[in-house]
């Protein structure tokens, strides 16, 4: 038997869930009422709202990306019961995060012990990417939770239970199908490996590798339904091109694999934990009265390793944006193995874990010396507040103006239900705020085309540290621009010069910025309006 689950020891799972949810809710309290952010505003919230209003699993207010509908249906249910509001949405997602952490706790307790389970759960909960994603409307954390529950059923030999959990994971995010497929491959290949103590998993009557293919059938059924409704299997053509067709380049795959390795083992202070575990491997196992402390059984380790490897390579092959949240299903597994290694070999393992916890918490607030997505720590709160203030200024001062901006601000200004404006504004959309894009927008304006605009809202579309690592490595900059859609946004003052307007509003928060630029035409119109008012109220001199 490879598992060490001890039902008689430790808190009841319901108590773990309640305490975990309460802690997450308290820590996220200042963030619960924030408007929706980035991909939340661009796809997931509109898709869930469409389901709420029309009952359709295919979104209408956004072009369908073919993501399975489970999370959107879950949110629509909550909105039906408690009302459509950011606080309701974020509280509902915190419940999902608490359920995911409970699954991880039970998995860790099954393959290791209570001490390892507690440490793994705490470290995962405070890991900056997991913590930030806990209240955001994305799919990856929810899929990760179901994968943890599925892995626990798998290592305990519960084939039908594993099939159920992995099916829920795959109907949450399509990439979660990697977990059961990786385990199926391991089940097929493991009998061919040399026999070794702990290399096998417990056998039960319902343990059948074929059951791991049930999630694939359900996911195929969803894609069949999506094709029937839309004429596309894997989302709209642009989505498929960006996430699949444009990524199939050998050099890009290699670079993406290196990025995924970093996100899995080093990102946001995770390197401290993995290095500590690697150094601990040089130490002999600690001995107790009953013998040396046990490791996680090899069968369970190889099962988790198969899932990690599948995610590393698959996420290097597909996915236009190299977002760290895509690796959330496997990063906690790395944390689990590292914590188990420290527990087994290091006397002061609790001290090491406590130091890593403090470093993770610091990562909530302190940005790293390299570029990262604001959704990976609390920088997303800075982004939201910047856009709240600037768009309130826009709506109050230029309610009828046409606004030049980029996504996602274009959605924030046109969809009041996202929480930024009270009524829709007219927008002219560009891709980003690099110099070339701004110059193209200037050309459109000079031609008096229908794409003319009176105001521009410019903002940082990515975080740029003051002195980024590899800043002077020209080849890396070229690779980023070629393969990962990298560009440098022009700062507000320079953007105003390019567009030929006046910078009338600007704000900066921890490396992110936003600005409002007023075009000369609207200034002239205001002056003419003021002149007309004065002419009507100031008497003319006698003739």
Which key phrases capture this entry?
two-stranded antiparallel sheet, 543 residues, single chain, alpha/beta, 5-stranded mixed β-sheet
Radius of gyration: 26 Å
Q: What fraction of residues sit in β-strands?
A: 5-15%
Number of domains: 2
Tally of alpha and pi helices: 22
Spatial sequence of strands, sheet with the most strands: 4-3-5-7-6
Could you give a short account of the major beta sheet? 5 strands, mixed
Distance between the termini: 109 Å
List how many beta strands DSSP finds: 7
- The helicity comes to 55-70%
Structural class: alpha/beta
* Assembly state: single chain
Summarize the structure.
The chain is α/β, with parallel strands linked by helices.
Describe the protein's architecture and organization.
This protein has two domains: 13-367, no CATH class; 379-529, 3-Layer(aba) Sandwich (Rossmann fold), CATH 3.40.50. The chain is an alpha/beta fold and 543 residues long. The strands form two sheets. The chain has a five-stranded mixed β-sheet, with helices on both faces. The chain has a two-stranded antiparallel ribbon with strand order 1-2. The chain has 22 helices and seven strands. The chain has helices spanning 13-28, 39-54, 70-82, 86-111, 114-126, 128-133, 140-155, 159-170, 178-189, 214-230, 237-243, 250-265, 270-280, 298-317, 331-345, 349-365, 379-397, 409-414, 435-446, 474-483, 492-499, 520-537; strands at 287-288, 291-292, 402-406, 426-430, 455-459, 501-509, 512-519. The protein is globular, with a radius of gyration of 26 Å.
